[in-house]
Amino acid sequence: MGARVSKRNREKRAARKRARQQRGPTPPRHEFGDRPHGPGCPCGEHDGPPPLPPAEQLARTLLAVARTGDPAEASACASELAGTHFSRDPQAVGAAASMILTRTLGFMWRGGWLPADLWEITRRRADAVVAGLLVDMIAADTTQHAPRTVHERWAAQVRQLDADVWWERDRPHLPQWAQRHRLTVERAVLATITLLAELVTLPRLPQILPPPGSATQRATAAAGVDQKVLSRVRALLAKAESTQFPEEAEALSAKAQELMNRHAFERALLDADEHRPQAATSTRLWLEAPYIEAKSQLVAAIGAANRCRSVFHPDLGFVALIGDPLDLDITELLATSLLVQATRAMVAEGSQTSRTGTSRTRSFRQSFLLAYATRIGERLQEAATTAAEPQADERLLPVLADRSRVVEETFQEMYDRTVAKSVSITNGAGWQAGRAAADRADLNIERTAVSA
């Protein structure tokens, strides 16, 4: 362990040294102190290539300090830039912050990240101030591009974040942002460095959507989805989340699953009639701590029942889903609702202790959620079968087979290397309670038809 700590310390010291070198020493000045030596200096001793523009120099400094990951170095840099540099050239400091954040966002987009993804990871790892700065930078980045070159799903995520350009575009954003949020310039610069430090450590992800500026058409995010069906499904799920009776909640969820599957099968038959080629895409569902591994099992079970593949990213906290766009809509709607219901049922079981008084709450809840996921998966598969029976048609099977093939090919293109992970149950009582919570409902569709 000591060797690893020592190595990290050496890496941090080297990064800090690079940051100081990036900033560079203060240029020597003439005796009367009016300006530094440089190209064309009367003394003739310091001619050379022209220096970088001040904003470019400061942008590189901000990035170099962010890469150190050292809070003390970040604070020192923020203090220096907000003091001497800002008093000399406030335009340069503000321009540098926007410049380097915009460049970094472009790098993240090319690395597979989407606006919603960056917001989700930032709000988990930083404070609301830093997350707010990110939203403004996403707005600034999006407005650089013609609307027709921004994919509709991308634009929808930007709208969901309420990312709008509220500041005067002819002046740097950072000072205006600091004033709006009643922050000092130093705090605003520190937020810039903190945001950069979070972004530069993120890994590359599979590309889902073309970055803004490179989309070739404004494809709709949910082509062919019957909004009346989705409205009815949302109403069912809202009732399921609000009721205090587990049996009613699970019956309403099963009804929603059946409605959406029936709609999916009808759409598949329409595809067959129109000889429409199948297509697959991906979305990411972010999970809230704790028990994200167990929650990922619930999402995977719901996805499997709706013909989607899933990959869990434990270090980041989301499940990637790959499937037909409509199947993804179904999975996301159900998963969002059932995660709420599962958490409520789990909390209702209360704290758990062993005979000796030792807390067993964590193992109980982990096992509860795993059992809930397993049983819900079984029930949703049953609901899918029920929905398919009225659609018995010789055209349906080839379409679904073709869709499954396209989903599998897309999955392999995005994730050429995955590891299947098994989960262990450490609390039998939690397993039984979780399975019972998912198994109490009478899923007779006739009973739920009135509620719909």
From TrEMBL:
- Give a Pfam family name: DUF7168
Family annotation (InterPro entries)? DUF2786, DUF7168
* DUF7168 domain sequence ranges: 295-396
Q: Basic residues: which segments have biased composition?
A: 1-21
Composition bias, Basic and acidic residues:
28-37
Q: Where is region (Disordered) located? A: 1-55
Instruction: Indicate the segments forming the DUF2786 domain, all copies.
Output: 228-266
Name of this chain's protein: Uncharacterized protein DUF2786
Name the species this protein comes from. Pseudonocardia kunmingensis
